[in-house]
């Protein structure tokens, strides 16, 4: 059964197999649905490239890139890819395991995490990022909304839509900053060359800062001023906004150092 491009939504079935049963999130590039895999009888997550991008070859490439990167990564702290699919009408979609739970962003909206949970977060994200980096890949968009936390397990990284393959992708950010400014490393925001895995170390530092304090280190309604604050490292030190062990405070400060050689 084919579906008109653009008509993909609740009730659609992709590749005669994945029935979209609930909307999970609407993103800039793709929409995420909870779906029923009719073959396995299981619940899965399906990310579909938005209709307005279906004819955009660079978006399609970016989407396939996300699938290819996820396929290479098989790690308990990274969401598992089940299929990179294409519908007979050209709609591209990614099928991943469905992670029952909430995102770290949702959790943090209720307040900071207790230290044991921060420990679990550090373990999972360091492990997961280690695997990503070992594959020569950058995640490129670490933030609480891209960490899903199952009710009964350890947190997992999702969303490799901004990922880059070292040595293959252009890594200078001039003119094409993709990601969320509040979590982006200074060298990305200022379009410096030689961007490397340390942008993820920085993003991890910001995520941990927020997990410990329920506050973003940098905020400003004006994006230019926000970028200047990030570039200058102009934020309250984590140990002034959260009552935490020194070792954790040092780790966060080091991870989010404005100079990557200090991270
Ligand atoms: N496998 C999954 N299981 C459960 N929820 C998911 C899954 N993948 C993504 N989500 C949810 O969908 C949201 C958007 O997915 P994401 O891959 O981050 O796309 P986007 O590029 O639109 O940010 C996530 O923030 C999370 O809430
Ligand atoms: Mg996302």
Can you tell me about this structure?
This protein is an alpha+beta fold and 263 residues long. It folds into two domains: 5-97, 2-Layer Sandwich (Phosphorylase Kinase, domain 1); 101-262, Transferase(Phosphotransferase) domain 1 (Transferase(Phosphotransferase), domain 1), CATH 1.10.510.10. The chain has eight helices and eleven strands. It has helices spanning 57-72, 104-108, 115-134, 186-189, 198-213, 223-232, 238-241, 246-255, and strands at 13-14, 18-26, 30-37, 42-49, 81-86, 92-97, 101-103, 137-138, 147-150, 156-157, 164-165. The strands form three sheets. Strands 1-2-3-4-6-5 form a six-stranded antiparallel β-sheet, covered by helices on one side. Strands 7-9-10 form a three-stranded antiparallel β-sheet. The protein is globular. The model has no long low-confidence stretch (mean pLDDT 91). Bound molecules: adenosine-5'-diphosphate and magnesium ion. Adenosine-5'-diphosphate is lined by residues 24-25, 27-30, 32, 45, 47, 79, 96-99, 103, 145-146, 148, 158-159, 161.
The CATH class assignment of the largest domain is Mainly Alpha
Q: What is the spatial order of strands in the main beta sheet?
A: 1-2-3-4-6-5
Give the beta-strand count: 11
**Helix and strand run:** EEEEHEEEHHEEEEHHHHH
Shape descriptor = globular
Main sheet: strands, sense, barrel: 6 strands, antiparallel
User: CATH homologous superfamily of the largest domain, by name?
Assistant: Transferase(Phosphotransferase) domain 1
Q: Estimate the strand proportion.
A: 15-25%
């Amino acid at each position: 059964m084919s579906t008109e491009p653009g008509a993909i939504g609740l009730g659609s079935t992709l590749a005669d197999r994945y029935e979209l049963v609930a909307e999970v999130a609407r993103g800039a590039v793709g929409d995420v649905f909870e779906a029923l895999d009719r073959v396995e009888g299981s619940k899965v997550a399906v990310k579909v490239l938005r209709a307005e991008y279906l004819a955009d070859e660079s978006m399609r490439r970016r989407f396939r890139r996300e699938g290819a990167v996820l396929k290479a990564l098989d790690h308990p702290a990274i969401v598992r890819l089940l299929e990179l699919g294409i519908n007979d009408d050209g709609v591209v979609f990614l099928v991943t395991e469905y992670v029952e739970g909430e995102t770290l962003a949702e959790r943090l909206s209720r307040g900071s995490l207790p230290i044991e949970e921060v420990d679990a977060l550090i373990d999972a994200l360091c492990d997961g990022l280690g695997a990503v980096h070992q594959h020569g890949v950058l995640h490129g968009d670490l933030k609480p909304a891209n960490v899903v936390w199952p009710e009964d397990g350890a947190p997992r990284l999702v969303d490799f839509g901004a990922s880059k393959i070292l040595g293959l992708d252009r890594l200078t950010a001039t003119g094409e900053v993709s990601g969320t400014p509040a979590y982006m490393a200074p060298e990305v925001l200022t379009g410096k060359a030689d961007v490397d895995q340390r942008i993820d170390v920085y993003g991890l530092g910001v995520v941990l800062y927020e997990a410990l304090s329920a506050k973003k280190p940098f905020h400003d309604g004006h994006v230019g001023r926000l970028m200047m604050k990030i570039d200058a490292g102009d934020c309250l030190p984590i140990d002034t906004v959260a009552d935490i062990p020194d070792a954790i405070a040092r780790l966060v400060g080091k991870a989010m150092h404005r100079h990557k050689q200090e991270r």
